Amino acid sequence: MRVFKFPCAIFFICLFSCASDPNAFMETDTRIEIASFGQALESDEHVAEVRSVAETRAVEARAIAERREAETFASEARGAEARAKGTLSAEMYLAEDALRAENRAAAETLAAQTRLVELTKVAEALSLERREMETRARGAQGAEASVAEARVAAARSAETRALADVRETEARIVEMRTVEARAAETRRVTETRVVAARSEAEKRANEVRIAEAFLAETRATEARATQARLSAEAIVETERIAAEKERLAAEAREAEKREAEERMLAEARKAEVRETRKLSSKLWTIGGSIGTSLAAPMFIVSAHGTAAPFRFYFLEMGIDFGFLSGASDVGYNSIYPFVHYAFFLPDAFFLLVTKSIGWYIGAGFGYMMSNYSLPEGDLKEKTFAMDMITGINIANIFDISYTLRTNFRNSNNKISAGYTYRFKPK
């Protein structure tokens, strides 16, 4: 019974408080509804914050994808620009080579023209000298004429060689002019290709600038998306930390509340135990029992009651009705009113599992009125007797007692057990 005593007390206290306040259940439901509504609002806000974080992460992912695409585009544009610059460099080298070839051809042409002029002058001088020698040879005679003719032949041979050199130089000039024309044509073609390569390089450079601008824009977008995500996550984290702090504070408050309630309940239990011990030490009962004295009377029916004006002591008043003498030819009946004063110790057997066993011991007196039916006639006896009693009260229901009774001439005893109703004094 002690196991269920404390929960039952809490239940009855709660029931009494709710009965004394009819609006308690309504207020409790209202508080529950308000708490549920607040939790729903907090849940909706948390869901919105989580959704905002997810959206910012999606925007950031798109920005990262666009940034990577822009980096790929910029890398391709830089590669194309590098190839265009390489082509431009090669074409410029070819153009410079063609220009150098044209310049060399022009220089050789100029040198050949200069040599042609010199050779022409030499040829004219040799032709003039030859004509003079021919004139002298026509006027010379004999040996002088032979020498003059030899000189004229030598002059003619020199003139012929000079004319051959002039013709060779003219052919060289024509050849060099052809080379110069081809070099000029190559230079013009190369210059055209250089212009095209420069245009392509500028186009690729413009594409690179566009790609870099797009890359810078995507990086800025990614940075903004990252900042927005970090801000959203920071807000969520701040809200989470605040919620965690609030939860911890609520748990701390709840723990303090439970601790206070436990302290109050402990104090209530202590007060209840003190009051219970105080009240349990006062034995107010009424009941009846049956027993035997193992002699006349063999069968005893008792009615008794106790009153306890003081703690740990009680006054018992009752009456015994005895029957049967134990002999077949002897009838017996008796009436024994008695008064006892006893010391009572509640929860005496504390080493047992249950503590609902009280022990008492005391003394008192009574007046025995007995009647024997003998074959010779009836015999009546009346005498005062002194009682010494001891017994136990189990769970405030069962009473088992032993009484030693004597009138100082002889003695008797009584063993009885019965039902006892215990009043709870207020």
N-end to C-end Cα span = 21 Å
Largest sheet: 8 strands, antiparallel, barrel
- Portion of residues in helices? 55-70%
CATH topology name of the largest domain, in short, is Helix Hairpins
Order of helices and strands: HHHEEEEEEEE
The tally of structural domains comes to 2
The low-pLDDT segments are: 1-28
Total number of β-strand segments? 8
CATH architecture of the largest domain: Orthogonal Bundle
What Rg is obtained from the alpha carbons, in whole angstroms? 71 Å
Instruction: Give the amount of beta strand, in percent.
Output: 15-25%
The strand line-up of the biggest sheet is 1-2-3-4-5-6-7-8
Treating each run of at least 4 consecutive H or I residues as one helix, how many helices? 3
> Given the C-alpha coordinates, what overall shape results?
rod-shaped
How would you describe this structure to a colleague?
The chain folds into two domains: 41-280, Helix Hairpins; 283-423, Porin, CATH 2.40.160. It is built from three helices and eight strands, in the order H-H-H-E-E-E-E-E-E-E-E. It is 63% helix and 24% strand. The chain has 426 residues and is α+β, with helices and mostly antiparallel strands. The longest helix is centred in the middle third of the chain and has 138 residues, at 143-280. Strand 1 and strand 2 (299-307) form a beta hairpin. The protein has helices spanning 5-20, 24-139, 143-280, and strands spanning 284-292, 299-307, 313-323, 331-345, 357-374, 377-394, 398-406, 411-423. An eight-stranded antiparallel β-barrel has the order 1-2-3-4-5-6-7-8.
